[in-house]
Specification:
Chain lengths: ~625, ~525
């Protein structure tokens, strides 16, 4: 392996560039225009522009990525996470192009790719999933039978869901019937896209960072606990997963190995499990990629997991994981406001000061001056804190949070302070009572401020509010008896003292960032049911760029039209070949008139590929 | 160690003892507080399961922290009997420090329906907003008129319509559709300045899918009939399609930051320090527009090179994409930008883009927002479809909008400006204050080929009769026309262009022009009741 192309952006692209450089492997980055000045594009040995303004034209543009790999001479491709990392057809294309795919092979991605096939696979591998129905359900009776056998509540999950989307919980027969009525496949609903599981109300989310090489060697680099979640999205992760019995740990590791062996999995992946208070272990899913929280496993195993990935992909052996050294926490620093139950907020980052000192690692891609948009991923960076023991690591997190300063957008900083001093979480006496619903139940029930309006404040004074106390005070450092003291004074005191150079802060323009650039692109409109590509406007055909029977890939130029003295390009919306061309140069066409008939290989419904934010 | 000096009353209260000095509260009063709490609890359950926020959570997102003041918290309720009040919340709060009025329909109470109490609360709020001269934001999430109250509920819509019309053009009014909005209720937002919808859970239609099915037999889903995507891209009813509720609310907050509180106030000003990025943007601007006048390019890139922070907040982004309109700041002062989009149908003016431009120009003119027009337009769109769709009547709206506008107007011709479209896109003749053009621009009645065919019809005919090569003559004549006529000289000579400028100068010229025009005041014409604009 000499040169690796990274088909991703941001923090994870940078992560791969760094390790590749350490290993003497050349790197090729790809970027869309908005990312031109990003650190990952600057640090890579080569970087190529992906023209276009939508993800479909850029980071999800399979053929363009492979073409760039060829052009740059890359012999391996790292997909990162999100984007194309779990798209088996892309993996197959990469392999067919003679390029090493850094990840499990396409068949494994298919088998583990959606939650329902993963369930079935686990059952075959003798690994127990949460009680449920693994096959598509078509009638109401099997649903009711299942609910009555295992008891309510039960959960209907969309197979292509993730990150908390596509989950419906039913607590009664009526709710189940209502769900059925609105999703019945016979009525054109999407019931067959769902699978059914018993809802386990109280459980921890524990996962194993696993690896298996081509020779069949298997290791668990570390376990992780990711129970601190909001809306099924992780906020705090730690390794190793604490307060588990030796029996549970061996079950976790045993199940993981069974899954990886049965799949013939080569590469790194994560097996996710639920662990109930009575120590039952249920399989959830396999994430066949690197995850956001891989960092804590690196910290406690002392290994570089990207290096492991590259080594395994190149045919080498994995490094058997040593016993965990110490304890590590990862805090996702998001632009979410605890005062509104962690709703993503927007703003301009005025100032950002990361903590430093022993045991601190920061993986971040933002800088002061950046605009944080409510429209996109709210994660600004990850703060990873490691120490010799869990207690020491908790103390270090508290210290690090004191040093962390972010102005301009709200962050969960003071929510983290609460979490890391909460007895349920700290568990000094060994009784750890955090489950996946703990954070929401305990801290994300802030009632909107206006609930209190119309009543005397003495009745409604909020208790335990985690809203950041707003501090408009001016702070000065002075010495009293030569002792250093900081004095904080309300601004009203300075109202008259203009001469001190104290003036009202000038207004600054609120920014939304370049978010609005990523929009639906009409020129890539889907073809009619029979593969008809029609003219978007009344125009004259100036060029036909394809011939009958020619194979075309998505995004290939088919026809050039001219309207009002301007060229307009008609691209192929999908892969296929040309069945028929109905127009010729200089011919006038009306809007909606069919230009070309496409025969598609198959309308390969891609799984919600754009799910960039992983669970 | 930190010592904080707090206000004296607090300090006094604290020194008086450990017990806070509060009046005792009668027991019965506490039921109100409990009622409020349990109502919110119920709202949370109902709304969250649908992936929606509660009305009060939305208020928290809309306003600066801790600034909301409610009007008539329990109005229409019965505290003793556990009825928390009307299905709409009204009040005031601050957005980026400026007061804004709000009414938020609460779907968890009687489906957010509108009855007499709700109507009166909303009308009262609109009155107060006009009295105070502050914008109104409506958070819509309602099942429509409360059928149980019959025509009494319906008449409330009439009152709201009248008050909204009254306020129109005096205070900015923005509607966010965060749930259903059906029947006559749709006209409450339709009369306001801007409508924001979300990708999910947001619907607007006059008659719902059930009625459509019974009346016409057509089967259609809620979203196909009147979802956020349809109204943002096809009908043009909605001005912004938000990713989610938080994004919708953020858009409303940001748009208001470009507008004054009312038509008598001037736009806010922001501090701006041009930096290195502005320098490189200024250099880049010339490279975006291709030399080949047939090659398309993305006008929004040009705009982003011209404005502060490259920040351009589009209005109607997905609708009629051959024109682009939106807000931005130039040297800290908000402006409205109108431009053609050569990337989409050559940047042509058709019925939809005409209405898009006209509506935006009216909005800016009503609220003292200067207009910057960037022109690259091949003309009005020809064809029976357009003529029959009323390009005369609807195209006239652009003219009426520019022809009546009294705000500072600066126009720059980037490339093409042909025919009638040249005149309507903020030309000097129609009322713009200053016009500029890039040196490569082509300003003419029509393109070269068309012009030659008309002007030299006889010459071409003669050549044909003489057995000469007609095509050769034609192409000679065309290049001659392009060289001599297809440029901006005539416009310069007749004073319709004030100067030719290099692309790199564009931002500075616009900035200086706006500075020059800062004190431009509206002039009042004939003493009419109101103009009779094409509708």
């Amino acid at each position: 392996m000499e040169k690796v192309l990274i088909a991703n952006r941001g923090e994870i692209a940078l992560r791969v560039v760094r390790t590749a450089h350490e290993m003497g492997i050349k790197t090729v980055a790809v970027y869309m225009e908005a990312d031109r000045e990003s650190l990952f594009a600057r640090l890579a040995d080569e970087a190529y522009l992906l023209p276009g303004s939508t993800y479909n034209e850029t980071y999800l543009n399979e053929d363009l990525l492979i073409e760039i790999a060829r052009r740059s001479g890359a012999d391996a491709l790292h997909p990162g996470y999100g984007f194309l990392s779990e798209i088996s057809s892309f993996a197959a294309k990469v392999i067919a192009a003679g390029i090493t795919w850094i990840g499990p092979k396409p068949e494994v991605l298919d088998e583990l790719g959606d939650k329902i096939t993963a369930r079935r696979f686990a059952e075959r591998a003798k690994v127990p999933p949460v009680p449920g129905i693994s096959d598509p359900v078509s009638g109401i009776q099997p649903l009711l039978d299942f609910a009555h056998e295992h008891g309510y509540p039960i959960m209907m999950k969309r197979t292509d869901g993730g990150g908390g989307r596509g989950i419906t919980v039913a607590g009664t027969d009526e709710e189940l019937r209502a769900f059925y009525m609105s999703h019945d496949a016979l009525q054109g609903g999407d019931l067959d896209e769902y699978f059914i599981e018993k809802f386990v109300p109280q459980a921890r989310h524990v996962e194993t960072q696993s690896g298996r090489d081509g020779a069949g060697n298997f290791t668990v680099y570390s376990t992780r606990d990711c129970s601190v979640q909001r809306r099924n999205q992780k906020l705090v992760e730690e390794a190793p997963a604490p307060f588990l019995s030796a029996d549970v740990i061996s079950q976790l590791e045993g199940f993981s190995q069974k899954l990886f062996d049965a799949a013939g999995y080569v590469g790194l992946g994560t097996c996710e499990f639920m662990v109930t208070p009575d120590s039952k272990v249920y399989f959830l899913e396999v994430n066949p990629r690197l995850q956001v929280e891989h960092t804590v496993s690196e910290e406690v195993s002392g290994l570089d997991l990207v290096r492991e990935q590259l080594t395994i992909a190149a045919g080498g052996s994995l490094t058997p994981a040593p016993a965990p050294r110490g304890h590590s926490f990862e805090l996702r620093i998001t632009s979410e406001d605890p005062a509104t139950n962690l709703t993503p907020a927007s703003g301009t980052l005025d100032r950002i000061v990361w903590p430093t000192g022993p045991g601190i690692r920061v993986d971040s891609g933002v800088a002061a001056g950046d605009v944080i948009s409510a429209k996109f991923d709210s994660m600004m960076g990850k703060l990873i804190v490691t120490a010799q023991s869990r207690a020491a690591a908790i103390a270090r997190v508290v210290r690090a949070l004191e040093e962390l300063e972010i102005d301009g957008v709200p962050t969960p900083k003071n929510l983290f302070e609460k979490i890391f001093t909460d007895p349920d979480f700290v568990a000094a006496d060994g009784t750890f009572s955090v489950t996946t619903k703990w954070l929401e139940k305990k801290y994300l029930t802030v009632a909107p401020e206006s609930t209190r309006s119309g009543q005397p404040a003495s009745l409604t004074a909020g208790e335990g509010s985690i809203a950041e106390e707003r501090d408009d005070n001016e702070t000065f450092v002075i010495e009293i008896d030569n002792k250093r003291v900081s004095l904080s004074l309300p601004p009203e005191l300075f109202a008259g003292a203009v001469s001190k150079g104290h003036k009202t802060k000038p207004l600054s323009q609120p920014l939304r960032g370049q978010g609005s650039r990523v929009t639906a692109d009409a020129s890539h409109a889907a073809p009619g049911a029979d593969g008809d590509i029609s003219s978007p406007m009344q125009a004259v055909v100036t060029r036909v760029c394809v011939a009958p029977d020619q194979a075309v890939a998505k995004g290939d130029l088919l026809i050039v039209l001219e309207s009002m003295k301007m060229e307009n390009y008609v691209y192929s919306p999908l892969d296929g070949h040309i069945k028929e061309i109905l127009v010729g140069p200089a011919q006038g066409v009306d809007a909606g008139e069919t230009l070309v008939r496409l025969a598609t290989v198959e309308l390969d419904e891609k799984k919600d590929a754009a799910k960039e934010e992983e669970k | 160690m930190t010592a904080t000096l707090t206000s004296t009353t607090d300090a006094a209260a604290r020194s008086a003892g450990s017990q806070p000095l509060h009046q005792p509260v009668r027991e019965i009063i506490k039921t109100a507080a409990k009622l409020a709490e349990s109502a919110e609890e119920g709202a949370r359950k109902r709304q969250h399961s649908k992936g929606k926020y509660t009305a009060r959570e939305r208020l928290d997102l809309l306003f600066d922290t801790g600034t909301f003041e409610e009007l008539g918290r329990f109005r229409g309720g019965n505290i003793g009997k556990g009825n928390p009040g009307a299905a709409v919340i009204t009040g005031f709060g601050k957005i980026y420090g400026r007061t804004v009025a709000v009414y938020a329909q609460d779907f968890s109470i009687k489906g957010g329906t509108l009855g007499t109490e709700e109507g009166q609360k909303i009308c009262h709020l609109l009155d107060k907003a006009v009295d105070m001269g502050v914008p109104v934001v409506a958070l819509i999430d309602s099942g429509g008129a409360r059928i149980q109250e019959g025509v009494a509920a319906l008449t409330q819509y009439g009152r709201i319509f009248r008050k909204t019309c009254d306020a129109s053009g005096y205070i900015p009014q923005i509607s966010l559709i965060l749930g259903p909005c059906a029947g006559g209720a749709v006209y409450c937002p339709a009369l306001t300045d801007l409508i924001v919808m979300t990708k999910e859970n947001s619907n607007m239609f006059v008659t719902g899918p059930d009625v459509v099915k019974t009346a016409t037999g057509e089967s259609v889903t809620f979203d196909e009939l009147g979802g956020g995507m349809v109204h943002s891209s096809v009908s043009g009813v909605a001005h912004y399609l938000a990713e989610n509720e938080a994004d919708a609310i953020d858009y409303a907050r940001v748009v208001l930051s470009y507008l004054p509180s009312n038509a008598r106030a001037s736009v806010p000003r922001y501090s701006y320090a041009a930096g290195h990025a502005d320098q490189s943007a200024r250099q880049r601007i010339a490279t975006i527009v291709p030399d080949n006048e047939r090659a398309p390019y993305d006008m929004t890139e040009v705009i982003r090179c011209l404005v502060d922070y490259g920040e351009f907040v589009q209005v109607h982004e997905l609708f009629a994409p051959s024109a682009v309109v939106g807000f931005a700041c130039i040297d800290g002062s908000p402006v409205g930008i109108v431009a053609n989009q050569p990337n989409k149908m050559a940047g042509i003016l058709d019925v939809d883009s005409s209405e898009k431009v006209a509506r935006f120009v009216r909005l800016c003119d009503a609220f003292n927002v200067p207009l910057v027009t960037l022109v690259d337009v091949p003309g009005y769109k020809p064809g029976t479809e357009q003529e029959h769709a009323g390009i005369i009547r609807r195209g006239a709206k652009v003219i009426y909008a520019y022809g009546n506008a009294q705000v500072p107007m600066v126009t720059v011709v980037l490339r093409k400006a042909f025919g009638g479209a040249y005149i309507v896109m903020g030309s000097k003749s129609i009322g713009a204050d200053l016009n500029f053009a890039w040196p490569t621009s082509q300003i003419a009645v029509l393109g070269a080929a068309g012009a030659v065919n008309i002007i030299h019809r006889r010459d071409l005919q003669k050549a044909k009769e003489a057995g000469k090569d007609v095509e050769e003559l034609r192409s000679d004549l065309i290049s001659d026309y392009e060289r001599t006529t297809l440029n901006a000289n005539l416009s310069l000579e007749i004073g319709e262009l004030d100067a030719m400028i290099d692309p790199e100068e564009t931002r500075d010229i616009i900035e200086h022009s706006l500075e020059l025009l800062r004190d431009k005041k509206p002039r009042h014409g004939a003493p009419k009741r109101h103009g009779n604009q094409p509708l």
